[in-house]
Design brief:
This protein has 261 residues and is mainly α. The chain has a single domain (5-260), classed as Rhomboid-like fold, CATH 1.20.1540. Helices cover 66% and strands 8% of the residues. It contains ten helices and four strands, in the order αααααααααββαββ. Strands 1-2 form a two-stranded antiparallel sheet. It has a two-stranded antiparallel sheet with strand order 3-4. Helix 7 packs antiparallel against helix 8 (146-173). The radius of gyration is 21 Å and the shape is globular.
Length: 261
């Protein structure tokens, strides 16, 4: 099918304006190529690369709460997550700014794995927790600024709600989908966004042609830097608390391995 040149140019321009999104996409692809080159996306190989696995986390391998957001169990798994990341990640990055987008993405990815760890010991990989965090963050932004974004904002908020609802239903109806990671990412994205999402404002702009009647313009008010620190601390405290409590439910067997209690 032919592609409209204007649409192609807009897509490229959108990605070029979202450097963190482009970098995260590249990292995911590099990890996938590394996994494929070292034996493929089998369970053991993914564990070797850093997949989430309850007993290993309980033993102190806490980096398994971070690395899995860059690992995928197959090409289709990678493709679907990257498709959502490119579309929504670039929007959120341009809206929130690159620094704040990275905070949202990483916080949601880690929180998704933490909640997944709490839900069960099974291995898990994928960027879907972080992607759900992006959706949650954008949804909270639209909700906070609904007075100024008008009909378009309401339509976008409805679309976000429909996308999340469809994915929840599909997750409940299918096996092998980590619904806990989705929920954790969505929750983290919403919490972080509440603290750091931009607030839109209507300001009067005087011009020589107003004849005494100011023209109103919408401007974005960036959140102060300490809000970013608050968001990071909040996610860190929740992450540490859940990990500590869940790790305490594991016991050591006779060969010194951690197993669910």
């Amino acid at each position: 099918m032919r592609q409209n040149p204007v649409q192609r140019q807009s897509f490229v321009a959108g990605i070029s304006g979202a450097p963190a999104t482009s970098a995260i996409v590249s990292i995911n692809i590099l990890f996938f190529l590394g996994v494929m080159a070292s034996g493929g996306p089998g369970t053991q190989n993914l564990l070797n690369w850093g997949a989430k696995y309850g007993p290993y986390i309980a033993e102190g391998q806490y980096w398994r709460l971070f690395i899995p957001m860059f690992l995928h169990a197959g090409f289709f798994h990678l493709l679907t997550n990257l498709f959502a990341l490119v579309i929504f990640g670039s929007i959120v990055e341009r809206t929130f700014g690159t620094r704040n987008f990275v905070v949202v993405y990483m916080s949601a990815g880690v929180m998704g794995n933490v909640v997944s760890f709490m839900a069960g010991p099974n291995p898990g990989v994928g960027a879907s927790g972080a992607v759900f965090g992006i959706l949650g963050a954008f949804g909270v932004y639209l909700l906070l600024n609904r007075r100024f974004l008008g009909q378009m904002g309401r339509q976008q908020l409805t679309s976000i709600g429909v996308i999340v609802a469809i994915n929840v239903v599909m997750g409940l109806a299918s096996t092998g989908i980590d619904n806990a990671a989705h929920f954790g990412g969505l929750l983290a994205g919403g919490l972080v966004s509440y603290l750091i999402a931009p607030r839109e404002q209507l300001l009067a702009v005087d011009t020589p042609f107003n004849f005494g009647t100011p023209r109103m313009a919408m401007r974005t008010g960036a959140r102060p830097a300490y809000r970013v620190v608050q968001a990071i601390v909040l996610v860190a405290v929740i992450t540490v608390a859940i990990t500590w409590i869940e790790s305490g439910t594991y016991v050591t067997n006779i060969v010194g391995q951690k197993i669910p209690g």
